[in-house]
Amino acid sequence: MQSPRSDSRDLVDRYPGDRRRYFASQTWAEAAQKFFRRNLWAIAVFLAPLIWLSWGFANNSTGESDYKYTHGPLTNPHAAFDNNCEACHRPYDSGSLFTSSPIKPHERWLDMTCEKCHAGPAHHGTAIWPAGESDATCWTCHHDHKGRTNSLVRIDDNNCTKCHANLPASYDASKAGGDGNLKYAAAIHSFADHPNFRKLDDEANGKGAKRTIQFSHNHHMTLGIPPAPGSERGNLTKAALAKLNGNDASVESRYFKASDNAMTAVQLQCASCHQLDAGRVGLKGEIASGVNLTGEPKEAIQPPRAEGAYYLPINFDAHCKACHPLKSPEQTTIRKVEIDPFVLPHRKQPAELIEYLDAEFGRQLLLKNAAIKDAPAIGSTALSIQQEIEAARNKALEKLVADVNPRAYNALNGSTCAECHAFNGANEPPVKRTIVPVKIPTVWFQHAKFNHVSHRAVNCQECHPGTQDKYDPTDSKRFTADNKIKILGVESCRVCHAPQVTTSGPKGVSTSGGVRHGCTDCHRYHNGEHAYQGRGATARDPSEPRLSTIEFMLGTKLGKP
Amino acid sequence: MLFGRQSSSSQRVASVLIASAVACIPIVVWYVGSALLGWAWPVANGRFGVITGLVGFVIILSEILFWPRKALLRKFRWLGRARPWMWCHIVLGLVCVPIIVLHSGFDWGGRLSATTMVLFLIVIVSGVWGLVMQQWLPQKILNDIPSETVASQVEFAVEKHVSDAKRILDQMTTELGSAPDAKLGFKPKVIGRSKDQLSAFVENLLVPYLQHGRKIRRPRDLHENDMMHAEDSHAKLENANYIKLGSRKESENLFARLRMAIPNDALDDLTKLERLADIRRQWDTHVTLNFWLRNWLVIHGPLSLSMFVCMCIHAVKALKYW
Lengths: 561, 322
Known about the structure:
A: mainly alpha, about 30% helix, B: 2 domains, about 75% helix
């Protein structure tokens, strides 16, 4: 049905003017003015959010404007690169916006150049990576832009357990070389099921290294270091120690208080021998007491200072010599010349002692026997003197390498190497026997770090039991039983390094654990796990030469991206 | 554009709201699944997030291009009719809602992305609002405004009504429109006191009303002070009557009293004057309805452009810097 004609149409039809020009303006200026007048609100609405956005970026008191193009501030070591993306991220030109993957555009920012400054040996070179992780890259585990205090090396356990929870499935034996066998625990989900220390496992399995030095912690930690029953000597007293060391005041001060009298028996402490690496050098650069590397270039072979994480190796001169001075045995030569004991150098094989013994025996024969002194240098007399020296030397060597008699006084007199050392060639002449090198590891953990200073609040015996037990001098196995590694194992760590547990009992509520127990609390990678290879070690250098200072500040090598 | 084929405006409005609700279903399902069932939260910079972002960008770009396309449609007929384009604009706009919201990962993000998302939501809501208005108000205008004209041209069109009113008044009160009388020659239809009353009504009430409609509540030349102290009760009456012209019922009563005061042969002219007042009243309503029919465009259009600008910056920033 046709709708009725509008009255307005009638009215419009009566309009006498040009209808085509009815709405049109006459000039561009009028048209523009009309446009803006009619669309003022639309223009205002269009501009309002853009102005607000611009104002927000320009005047942002919260610092958000600083993070327009970043996830957050860099960690402290990288703080200098806050405004220099290309210091770490590989630079891209504008064309890369279109040539890179549009599906994973953010991965462009994960193409970084960490190796410019950091060495990255392939800890995970044998890994079979989970689906979606094509390769081992730095950002796989290390995430920056998480604040100044964020640690790049303290990473979440998931980064480790995604492979180590089922290592056989993530381990490519063909890349490992060697026998291709798995050398690490097959499944570790957390510190709760972390295997025991490897050296304890090896010892339990009979694969441990055979100890080549005989030493009883219990014996030495007993008051007076009592001798075996029937021994010629009594307890080690202040007077006895003074006699052994020629009244050396520095030695007495190490083991006794000034108020102790001469008959006070010595009581060794752990720290009497075990000294942290941080305490070796005094504030003024002097070598601390107890370190007496006679004849050695001390300053050259010892680090000037360290962080105190590790105990220094036990050293004969520093820790044994005071009670066990190494001297030649007393003896009388063929011509009845009594040879006074004299100090022998340590760290020498029996064959190497020949020249020392011959020289000293000859010197004392010349001094103490006038006939020898006046005898001609060539002839039968000289030959007999030589034979007399050789006889005395062989006799001394025989004593030095002979099995020790625990009852003998020489345990303190220091006349035998076998007091502590094991020998090879038991059936050989003394001069052909060799002392088995002592291989006590300075650092026992091969793939973990441990800081003794951090644990100084804990008593030594809590982790190292069997070092201060009651000593029974009559026990025939007191030495062999004491040769085991004196550490409890990983269980002693889990007492504290475990999730916090609160238990209630008759004595009330108690809590245990709660100390951090992540993988990276003990383990380091990229050569950082080696105790002897700290920061600045060559092994941790980047593959290319170091950056200059300017290059470091720029974050790139000059002349190349 | 009418949404759906229902003849009832309420049914079409319901269709719009249902379609909008359906567009939100994926959002609700994913959110509930992630919050309660442990589904993975969508991540804006993940594979899914980037794909949805790119798809959303293309859709929004095509939506924005509807604006210039609309102008081109008039020129290039081969682009087809506007209705299918508008239909695509509406459907794609609704489809875009879950895509963009899921792209966001239910996270506002930084200032730029939050601003872009807020603008997007305002654009969508204003678009749905406008679509609802377009289902309802045109039908209402068609029903309630039989004398519909171009709303923006009302102020010009009423000038013709004003001149008509004055012309009709002249026809009623002067010889110009009178019929020849045997005794008196030409005689006006309305004379005497009725003439004065009619002239005062047209000049003081009807013409100002036609010119200004409901915008003016009292005659321009009658100030409030004068009204309060006017001794002329007639002026007070005019003022009250002026206000009454805006009401159909009051207007009918007013004209009914005038009919009683004028001769019968002038009633047709008075009916024409009443018709002019009625048209003015309709146009006032028309202007109001037209305002609600189109006011959302002031939000929808400019904010679409703002959102598009923000979206482009966000896309470049996200692809290049994130």
